[in-house]
Design brief:
A hairpin with a 4-residue loop joins β15 (about 440-450) and β16 (about 455-460). By secondary structure, this protein is of the alpha+beta class. The protein is globular and about 75 Å long. The protein folds into four domains: about 20-240, no CATH class; about 255-350, Pdz3 Domain (Roll); about 355-585, 2-enoyl-CoA Hydratase, Chain A, domain 1, CATH 3.90.226; about 605-695, no CATH class. Helices cover about 40% and strands about 15% of the residues. Strands 2, 5, 6, 7, 8, 9, 10 and 11 form an eight-stranded antiparallel beta sheet that branches. Strands 1, 4, 15, 16, 19 and 20 form a six-stranded antiparallel beta sheet that branches.
């Protein structure tokens, strides 16, 4: 079993590292596109699937941290989630389908124990039938151009809507959906024939992806709906997904270095892998949506809206040194905005590129300049193999940061540990890294499912750096990052700044199911199981809540929409007894003044004004339930957004002193433009030094 504390999204998530596969699908392969797909093919479970199902059920009921009871209540959750996984927006099934399926609503728990799989396959086969009916409507309706002068609206979010009673009702819903998508394309400058070509390809590819589902795919889908109903980090890996998971852990093959997840019809970026091409480019970010993929500098951008996640990933993967182009909708933008196209060169994600790095930035506060040493830690890494072999200079987070601190400590006024987008890694590294800033003591408590509590302690009495310390985090800082930042905060050893962290406070084991099913060796797959929970030394769990910064920065991310707390099946926050520790300082009296000066700067810093404007616009878009299908209205909205974007670029050029035509020239590095949160962190640290020196 392998212990995992890194943040991963497994159910419909894939990494973009290369892997050999006999099922590559690009949407552009003539041989594949020429294959006749049977729209009426009925999928059935394979004869060994019931055995896997029953073993998974027994393991989850006996060994999961939750001590879960698989009963009628859980059955109803699994049923609802399975329907939602197939038709989250109620655009395919009819009400009579759902009424028919409801006979299984409270029986799935019995099916799981008894190895009965026919019901989920029956539901999937009906879904496939309804999808083919929808595609027939789509291709027929696109033969006639829409009238964009009619004043009507499209409502994309149908999560709380009633199921359509008739096919005519569904046709009307789909007519408006197609009109909305066609208008989006028209606003980018496409003529009607190109609009039709794009939409026909989009839905043909989507239909083909579903028709390519095999019996194994339906089994994987249902087992993961079951696992995720218990806990978002519990998951079933088929043999093929197990191979992909190993690749993600080793980060050894070529790709762009991003974890992707299905988000309705879109492919969403969940996490950027430190050291990968996407990370180094700075062009792709969590929550961006990928809507098209192209190969090379000139390859056609293939629309991937509605595609299966596996097929999108296969499009993005490729050999080292080759170019992939992605059309993206930026995070927090509405789905009716124009896309940006970025180019990335595929490469390997190497350990040394994931290593901690330092820089020194200078800020001025109250007429005095301060040097701030910044150490960026992309993940909590360690070269276990080199350590096991006894190699003296093996790579690890703590060893690298120790060296960087020794290089910085005599030349800077403060140090900031930047843990933004750090999704976790080795627990021991989080503990030993904390030890560089404290003398001795507990760092984290770990409670197992049997109630036993283990304490992870720093046993090294050396303090490498004792000066002013800040820890910069965001919503994508998780797991080991939360352990470190929580310990620094609890000891009063430094300030935590940024956004509320992710809230992943659980430990997973990976179990090879062939141990229980030797007769089907190679076919059983693996189960990732939550077995323990993290607690701060104060007794508070990091689960669900995460770490709340001392100084909060503006963010468009709502914790209820992204992070552990956004998932209904997440383990709850709770508290255990605190362990004994001695605080280094009580920083709470300084916080109000630091917050006050921080908020004053936000009023005058242009980049933060842009952030605040974007947050207000994002919240407004969130409340927007209807989109006009009048071309004149939508064109006016687009022109307004384009004008605002252009004005910001002109303002930035003015700040940077750029004049004339600077096309093709690299943008000068300027912290005010490139990283306002890091710049502001420097100012907060300067305020912190001033307040400490004044004795306040």
């Amino acid at each position: 079993m392998r212990i995992l504390i890194v943040l991963f999204f497994i159910f419909v998530t894939s990494s973009s590292c290369d892997v050999k596969s006999s099922e590559k699908f690009t949407g552009e392969n003539p041989e594949e596109n020429s294959v006749e797909l049977d729209t009426n093919k009925v999928l059935q479970p394979k004869d060994y699937f019931p055995k896997i199902e029953m073993v998974i059920t027994k393991i989850l009921s006996r060994y999961h941290y939750k001590n879960v009871e698989i009963n009628d209540s859980l059955s109803e959750i699994i049923f609802d989630n399975y329907i939602d996984a197939l038709d989250y927006n109620k655009m395919y099934f009819l009400k009579r389908d759902i009424e028919k399926f409801k006979k299984y609503h409270d029986k799935i728990d019995d099916f799981l124990y008894d190895g009965v799989l026919e019901p989920p396959y029956e539901i999937f086969n009906v879904y496939k039938k309804r999808l083919n009916q929808r595609m027939n409507y789509v291709f027929a309706r696109l033969k006639k151009e829409f009238d964009f002068t009619i004043d009507e609206y499209y409502e994309p979010d149908r999560a709380d809507a009633e199921w359509a009673q008739t096919e005519d009702e569904l046709n009307e819903l789909w007519r408006k959906r197609l009109k909305h998508e066609a208008l989006n394309l028209k606003l980018t400058g496409k003529k009607w024939d190109k609009v039709v070509e794009t939409l026909v390809k989009r839905y043909q590819n989507y239909q083909k992806a579903i028709l390519r589902y095999k019996s194994e795919d339906v089994f994987d889908l249902f087992m993961n709906v079951f696992a995720n109903a218990i806990d978002p980090h519990t998951a079933y890996f088929s043999p093929r997904e197990s191979e992909n998971f190993d690749i993600r852990m080793k980060l050894s093959l070529e790709g762009i270095g991003a974890l992707l997840q299905q988000d309705g019809d879109y492919t969403k970026v969940v996490r950027i892998i430190p050291g990968g091409p996407a990370y180094k480019s700075g062009l792709l970010h969590p929550d961006d949506k990928i809507v098209a993929v192209g190969q090379g500098k000139e390859g056609e951008l293939v629309d991937v809206i509605g595609w299966r996640i596996d097929d999108v990933v296969q499009m993005i993967r490729g050999k080292k040194g080759t170019i992939v182009r992605l059309a993206i909708i930026e995070a927090n933008s509405s789905s009716d905005v124009a896309t940006d196209t970025i180019s990335l060169v595929r490469d390997k994600v190497k350990l040394e590129e994931r290593a901690a790095k330092k820089e020194i930035t200078e800020v001025e506060e109250h007429g005095k300049k301060y040097k701030i040493g910044v150490i960026k830690i992309p993940s909590f890494y360690i070269d276990f193999e080199a350590k096991r072999k006894g190699i003296a200079d093996y790579k690890s987070t703590t060893r690298d940061v120790r060296k960087l601190l020794n290089e910085l400590k005599d030349s800077v006024d403060a140090v900031v540990i930047d843990l933004r987008n750090n999704g976790g890694g080795a627990l021991d590294e989080a503990i030993s890294l904390t030890g560089l800033f404290i003398k001795l003591g507990p760092v984290v408590q770990v409670r197992n499912s049997n109630g036993k509590i283990d304490i992870g302690e720093d046993t090294d009495p050396d303090i490498v750096y004792s000066g002013p310390l800040g820890v910069l985090v965001n919503r994508f800082s998780a797991s080991a990052s939360e352990i470190f930042s929580a310990a620094i905060q609890d000891y009063g050893r430094g300030l935590v700044l940024g956004e509320q962290t992710y809230g992943k406070g659980t430990v997973q084991n990976l179990i090879d199911l062939k141990r229980f099913l030797p007769a089907i060796d190679g076919k059983a797959g693996e189960l990732k199981l939550t077995v323990a929970k993290f607690y701060r030394i104060t007794g508070s769990s990091t689960q669900n809540l995460g770490v709340i910064p001392d100084i909060k920065f503006p963010t468009p991310i709502d914790p209820d929409e992204f992070g552990e707390s956004s998932n209904p099946s997440a383990l709850e926050w709770d508290r255990i007894s605190p362990t004994r520790f001695t605080k280094y300082a009580d920083l709470s009296p300084l916080i109000p003044q630091l917050v006050k000066e921080h908020e004053e700067r936000l009023k005058t810093e242009p980049e933060f004004q842009y952030i605040l404007e974007d947050i207000a616009e994002y919240k407004k878009n969130k409340e927007k339930k209807k989109y006009s299908l009048l071309e004149s209205v939508r064109r006016e909205e687009k022109e307004k957004n384009d004008k605002k974007k252009k004005m910001r670029e002109e303002a930035r050029k003015k700040i940077l002193g750029i004049t004339g035509d600077e096309k093709g020239k690299e943008k000068p590095k300027n912290l005010k433009i490139d990283d306002p949160n890091l710049e502001e962190t420097g100012h907060v640290m300067a305020d912190f030094i001033i307040l400490n020196n004044s004795g306040r």
